[in-house]
Every structure is written in C-alpha cells, then in structure tokens.
Write a structure and sequence with these properties.
47% helix, globular, alpha+beta, 4-stranded mixed beta sheet
Length: 301
C-alpha cells in the first residue's frame, strides 16, 4: 500500500528527477473527427507528445511499483482548429484504482472538461520548465494528473492526497494570471478547474474526503474478507452526502463527481444488501440525487 509545495518548487523538482518511477500508467488519445479537410499529422504528433509527457513525468517523491501505477486515460477531442496551430477542445479524464486482493477496479474519476483552448506546433514536445507553465493544455493536463494522484492517495490513507491538491491549487492560481486561458476563472462556472480544486480544498468539505477513504480502504478493500461487513461500512458512510448537499456552493461539484464515478457501483452493491439497507440507501440517494431516477430505480425492485 502507498504511503505547501509552491508551483515553482514543484516544477523545479520535476525538472530534476529522472523518468524512472512514474506514478501514472496513462493512455492519451486525440480525437480529431470533428475537424474536416485538414492535415491529420498534427493530431498524431499531438497524441504522441501528450503520451510521452504524461507517462514520462515524475509527479511526486513517492516511488510506486509497476503494479501500483495508477491506470488512467485522457481523451482529448478537438472541437475547432483556427490559424492551423490554435485549437479548442474537450478532455475526458478517467482513472481507476484496484480493489485489494481482487481483479476488480473502481473508478476514481470520470470527468469531462469542455472548456480548453491551446496552441500547439507540430512535433513540439511538451515539458515543464522551472517557474513556468506557458501552455494551457499543459496546465490542464498537469492539473488533472495531480487531481488523479490526490484521489488515489486519499483512498489509501486519510487525507493522503493533500500535497497533490495543493499542487493542483497552485497550478490553478498561476493559470488564472494567464491571458486568454479558458477554464480557470474564479466564480465563472462551478465545475471549471478553479471550482473543482476549491471544492476539494474547502475545509467544510473535509467530511467528503473522510468518506472517500472509508469507502475505499475500509469498504471496498475489505470486500474479499467480509463482503457483508464491507458493504454495510460503505452504505453507513453515505449519509455524509446528504449532510453536504446544499451546505455550500462548492458541495455540488463534489456530489456530481461522486455520482459520475460511484453511483452505478453503489446501486449494484446495495442490491445485494438486506431489504432495509436497500430501501434506506435508495431513500438517501434519492434525496441527494433527485434527478437520477434511472440509475436509482433498480433499488426499488
């Protein structure tokens, strides 16, 4: 199991470490189907550059074994191309975590970011330079890489991902000062990058991170030992969601991200519980997610 860094310190560290024990096992794809009548070689080059950047980067001081690397994917869909080298895009970020002593993997994140603009010159490699992130796509990818690491480390130890949340927060702060970069403005969209990291680092949302740890380490990781007890542990932890709902503006972002990654899994799990647990879980989730009847209806049977 796995065990305040300012961005200029982080980037300087990135520039010094060797690419020998990377934490992410990432698959990066670039989809350019929406772009017609143009040279596709630039998108192939972009895909290669992003794969090399994400997978060859050392993201922390932690050394992970090969089988501990975090499986994740970044799917970049190009929406528009202007002036050959300027693009707008959407990014689907996904990551999974293995469940202890099983072949099952559980989602850590499944999030679509639809507000990215960036420049790219064909065959130009991406890199982190000390004190500087000079490309919005690089800033966005680094932000989500740290978010993935934070979610993963939080799932193995209480508040274990704090350093990665701080790094993502520092990236967001720096990116806000860059002219013309979409997706970072404070109080713009609640689920933009600024809104996401504000949600995770807001002290009032601390109970959510405790739930995240309980759900994974005390729940899922115990499934092979005692599935009934593990399931009950998870279901008994869910009332935190109701407590957070409406408690502040930032809670809605976390609740939606939790639903996107966990709701189907919880429904499947609760279907194997006692009728009383099943009903109480349905009643709770219906209050938290009143518009998600389709996903929740199996619990009514």
């Amino acid at each position: 199991m796995r065990k305040s860094i300012f961005i200029f310190v982080t980037l300087f560290y990135f520039s010094l470490v060797s690419a020998g024990a990377q934490e992410l096992n990432a698959k990066v794809t670039v989809n350019s189907d929406r772009i017609q009548g143009t040279n596709k070689s630039i998108f192939n080059a972009l895909q290669v550059a992003l794969n090399n950047f994400v997978n060859n980067q050392k993201w922390s001081h932690t050394t992970l074994a090969q089988n501990e690397k975090i499986d994740c994917s970044f799917m970049l869909t190009i929406v528009t191309q202007k002036d050959n080298n300027y693009f707008t895009a959407e990014l689907l970020v996904q990551a999974q975590r293995p469940v202890y002593n099983s072949t099952y993997t559980t989602n850590l994140i499944r999030f679509r970011d639809a507000d990215i603009n960036f420049e790219y010159l064909e065959n130009t490699p991406f890199q982190l330079v000390a004190n500087t992130i000079d490309n919005n796509l690089v800033a966005t990818v680094v932000f989500y890489a740290n978010l993935i690491l934070a979610l993963d480390f939080d799932s193995f130890s209480p508040k274990g991902g704090s350093v990665f949340y701080r790094q993502a927060q520092n990236i967001a702060a720096q990116a806000q000062g860059a002219s013309g970069w979409n997706g970072w403005a404070a109080f713009d969209k609640p689920n933009n990058r600024h809104g996401i990291i504000t949600s995770f680092t807001d002290e009032s949302m601390s109970a959510y991170r405790d739930l995240w740890y309980t759900y994974h380490r005390k729940g899922l990781d115990e499934m092979t030992v005692n599935p009934d007890r593990a399931r009950t542990t998870i279901l008994n932890a869910l009332p935190v969601l109701e407590e957070l709902k409406g408690s502040s503006r930032v809670s809605n972002v976390l609740l939606q991200m939790f639903a996107d990654s966990k709701l189907d899994e919880i429904v499947s799990m609760a279907n194997k519980a006692s009728p009383e647990e099943k009903k109480s879980t349905y009643d709770l989730l219906k209050k938290v997610y009143p518009t998600m009847s389709t996903q929740l209806d199996p619990l009514k049977k």
